[in-house]
Amino acid sequence: MKTDTIIIGAGLTGLTTAFYLQRAGKDFLVLEKTDTYGGAIQTETEKDFLYEKGPNTGVVGTPEMAELFEDLGDKIKPEIAGDEVNKRYILKNGKWEALPGGLWQGITTPLFTTKDKFRLLGEPFRKKGTNQHETLADLVKRRMGQSFLDYAIDPFILGVYSGDPAYLVPKYALPKLYNLEQNYGSFIGGAIKKGFAKKDEHEKKASRKVFSVEGGLANLTKALYQSAGEKHFIFNAENTQVFPENDYFTVKTVQNGAPISIQAKKVITAIGAFALPEILPFVPKEQMQKISKLKYARVVEVVLGFNHWTGFPLDGFGGLIPFIENRDVLGYLFLSAFLKNRAPEHGALLTLFLGGVRKDYINDYSDDEIRKIVDNETKDLMKLTNFKPDLFKIFRHKQAIPQYGEDSGERFKTVKALEKQYQGLIIGGNLKEGIGMADRVKQGKLLSKCAY
Ligand SMILES: Cc1cc2nc3c(=O)[nH]c(=O)nc-3n(C[C@H](O)[C@H](O)[C@H](O)COP(=O)(O)OP(=O)(O)OC[C@H]3O[C@@H](n4cnc5c(N)ncnc54)[C@H](O)[C@@H]3O)c2cc1C
User: Fold this and answer.
1) CATH no. for 112-202
2) Smallest Cα–Cα separation from 9: which of 346, 312, 267, 315?
3) pLDDT, tens digit, for every residue of 238-250?
4) Residues having CB within 6 Å of any atom of ligand 1
5) pLDDT per residue as tens digits for the range 332-343
6) Which homologous superfamily is 296-402 in?
7) pTM of the model
């Protein structure tokens, strides 16, 4: 077989690349090792509940995400959440407190100490950091104070990365925040100046809006798959390996026991760093290790459905639990509060996460042990006298969220060196350029352009 471009991996990244290659009229094939497309994104319906097994919502944080919705037209119906998602709870001393949304709330909130609130006034005047590998924890302590780290940044990082602020390096993990300090000398001053800065029509498309898709996120990946064209996909592609030849690549794979060999001018990988050593056997071990050692958080996702909800009023996006509160649950998403048709009319659909980098051991607990934790914590935190969910599902994610730490610079350099050495090899996936769905779509679109 011969084709122009081979994409390895049919998650959101690979599907976006395939979608745009199809639109550009290019010749390509997608090799996916499982029997379906979507990767982490999988939606299910059971009883009267519609739930996600992976990501639940995204943010239209890149223009490319907004453009993908435009480009898909009426093939999907994006569901943009209302203002209720701006209400987010943080647990402090066992009580849910709303994260301040304005100045007055900022002054009166019990989440931060009075000392740190005063300290924040001096944030614009603090010197900017010089250590590009400073951790997020150190950066926030230096500019804002310990209580902002504990009750704002730490829970935010748990919600996004299931990670540890003392491991993540803002230059790589939160480049927008890092650049505020580096370019404007301050988070507050930088955010204000950026707010007033002129944006072109393309940049204006990005927003903080929270999205899902009517019928679940799987409808997004389904639309991408169908638009890219089913004939371009090879599922159950096992033991895929790439071999560079003179001015092309031979890609070998095995489908249902039958070996397949394909010649391609370009190979795009849209898989995690951990999957690369097997795919690219020609890369020396030492060099590959600089990429594949990227740490991934393991998480346990639990979906809870209730036909009749009698607990804590679900009037926001959800609640996050700072590490310092010493609980086993990382946080809850109140999905039925802001997405349509997720639960029966008077019921509720909640998703919660356990594990992550700092409570990694929870990932090894049995289903019974997980159930016990969820029972106890949810009864208490969601103010339920009786914990009798009508739906209880456990999903384990072994290599869920990459943790962009100090080793990221070396990883990016190695990727660039390999792409230079092997013209036509393009290494994508969540090992670089962001972990959220909007980042994946941005990268997927960019990857398609590399293959033109
Ligand atoms: C539990 C969880 C919750 C998340 N929550 C959110 C959220 O709320 N909001 C948000 O924006 N993002 C969230 N994310 C992140 C988001 O889901 C991912 O960034 C995105 O879906 C990843 O897409 P991807 O295509 O890069 O990778 P994946 O979805 O991992 O897809 C990679 C694909 O490659 C295939 N593959 C792997 N190895 C091979 C191989 N050797 N040969 C062929 N195919 C291979 C895999 O089977 C898979 O289909 C979450 C992720 C997880 C895991």
Assistant:
1) 1.10.3110.10
2) 267
3) 999 999 999 999 9
4) 8-14, 31-34, 39-41, 54-58, 237, 240, 270-272, 275, 278-279, 299, 301, 397, 400-401, 429-430, 435-437, 440
5) 999 999 999 999
6) Protoporphyrinogen oxidase, mitochondrial; domain 2 (3.90.660.20)
7) 0.97
